[in-house]
Amino acid sequence: MTTEDLEKQAQLIADSERKFVATIRELSGLIDAMIEHQSTFKTYLHTWRELFLSTHDLMKQHLELHKESVEALKSLSKALVDSAVTASENNDRIERLIVKMESYFGDGESLKYEN
Asked: In sequence order, what are the residues at sequence separation of 6 or more whose Cβ sits closer than 8 angstroms to the Cβ of residue 108?
């Protein structure tokens, strides 16, 4: 091997070393970018998790409110049925009273006066 060949080999080794260092720097930059991306993605997922948890809490509150509404409507329905039954019983009593009054005093047809 001549001196010229040795210089070429040394130059090839130096170029190879520079390319290796450049490749390692690029790889390091890519790894840093991936770490940043993963960190941002973790923050994004954490935000969505909190949103879903708050939505779950809100849905749970709505469910409780609807349950209370159903119970209130059941109570109202029972009260309306009781009221209708009472009104029907009162109507029956009034009918019986009217029949009794008519049996004593007549139906009121004979009470027409001429002016």
From this structure: 102
